[in-house]
Design brief:
Helix 1 (41-50) crosses helix 8, helix 6 crosses helix 7 (203-211) and helix 8 runs antiparallel to helix 9 (272-286). The chain has helices spanning 41-50, 65-76, 118-123, 143-153, 174-181, 191-197, 203-211, 254-267, 272-286, 298-307; strands spanning 5-7, 11-18, 33-40, 55-57, 80-81, 93-98, 104-109, 131-135, 160-164, 186-187, 219-223, 229-233, 239-241. With 313 residues, it is an alpha/beta fold. The strands form 2 sheets. It has a 9-stranded mixed beta sheet, with helices on both faces. A 4-stranded mixed beta sheet has the order 3-2-6-7. The chain has a single domain (5-10, 40-90, 113-307), classed as 3-Layer(aba) Sandwich (UDP-N-acetylmuramoyl-L-alanine:D-glutamate ligase). Helices cover 33% and strands 19% of the residues. The radius of gyration is 18 Å and the shape is globular.
């Protein structure tokens, strides 16, 4: 049976605006479109669930319109919600500005999702074969980050731990990040995040450096956009798995799609290279559609792969 994903990081609302380009500092511009959608960790869970992986949201969520929208979206994807909403606080949000060339800029305001009580965390019981997913926002300075780190370090050794450091990686306390990485089996930064952690190294060199910091037998995967993904494990030369060339219209959520599809593939028993090929194809398909949660179902992925020379994923 496929192990579950247990997601213990924030889910927030994405306020997505499309525009020709960002204004100059102090300037103004009009958005071409605007949508309010669940984002952040939701995109990873949606990608995993659409790939056939059972998913549990073990993070916090608030009362109010953002919390209501979050819960409705999770239930629509078949995601189990482990905890009741926290009172007196709504779920936070992220303003996502998507330019005409598909580049995106984020401004985030955290809410109830950043206040997961220790007792709620301890009530989760990942079993051997399950995957615990963490994103860097959950490790930002504060007591909750230390609670999460302690919980992760005490997990059963047969529970897979995956960490996406997110754009806030440089704000995470280095000693805390180093400690958590010792228990991480799958470390998945994008190229910019990997460079920030390794003194500006390129994807191959960064992947090799980061692979030495994760748990023995684990891997570092540096996502490099259209360039695919670089895989590194300790003691072996990094390997680049090429991406699929497409006409991107919105890259928002592409990394989340990659991670969710990857973890679902690994939970099925695919080896790392095969799982990355599936994740690359899933992310390529996602960026051809507008919106943050555009990860494909298995049927949609199969049809897309057949059109792009990746049949049999």
């Amino acid at each position: 049976m496929t192990g579950r994903m247990i997601h213990v990081s924030p889910v927030i609302i994405d306020l997505v605006m499309t525009l020709d380009r960002l204004p100059e500092p102090g300037g103004d511009t009009l958005a071409d479109s605007y949508r309010a959608l669940p984002g952040g960790g939701f995109n990873v869970m949606a990608a995993a669930a659409r790939s056939g992986m059972p998913v549990v949201y073990g993070g916090a969520h608030g009362t109010g319109p953002n919390g209501d929208l979050t819960r409705a979206a999770l239930r629509a994807e078949g995601v189990e919600i482990a905890h009741d909403p926290l009172p007196d606080s709504d779920t936070g949000f992220c303003v996502a500005l998507v330019e005409a060339d598909a580049e995106r800029t984020f401004i985030t305001s955290l809410g109830a999702e950043s206040e997961l009580p220790p007792e709620a965390l301890r009530s989760l019981e990942p079993a051997p074969g399950d995957t615990v997913y963490i994103v860097g926002y959950a490790l930002l300075p504060g007591p909750r980050a230390k609670d999460l780190a302690a919980w992760v370090m005490a997990l059963h050794p047969q529970v897979r731990v995956a960490l996406d450091p997110a754009p806030v990686v440089e704000a995470i306390e280095p000693a805390l990040l180093a400690k958590v990485m010792e228990r991480v089996d799958v470390f998945s930064p994008n190229a910019a995040e990997a460079a920030a952690l390794t003194g500006g190294s390129g994807p191959e060199r960064a992947a090799a450096s980061l692979a030495a910091r994760v748990r023995q037998g684990g891997a570092a995967l540096v996502r490099d956009g259209a360039g695919g993904c670089v895989i590194a494990t300790a003691g072996r030369a990094p390997v680049r798995v090429p991406g699929t060339v497409v006409s991107a219209v919105d890259t928002n959520g592409a990394g989340d799609t990659h991670v969710g599809a990857l973890l679902a593939a690994l939970s099925e028993g695919l080896d790392l290279s095969a799982a990355v090929r599936r994740a690359n194809m899933s992310a390529a398909r996602a960026v051809t559609l507008r919106g943050p949660a555009t990860s494909p179902t298995r049927a949609e992925l199969a049809a897309f792969a057949a059109e792009h020379g990746g049949a049999g994923l």
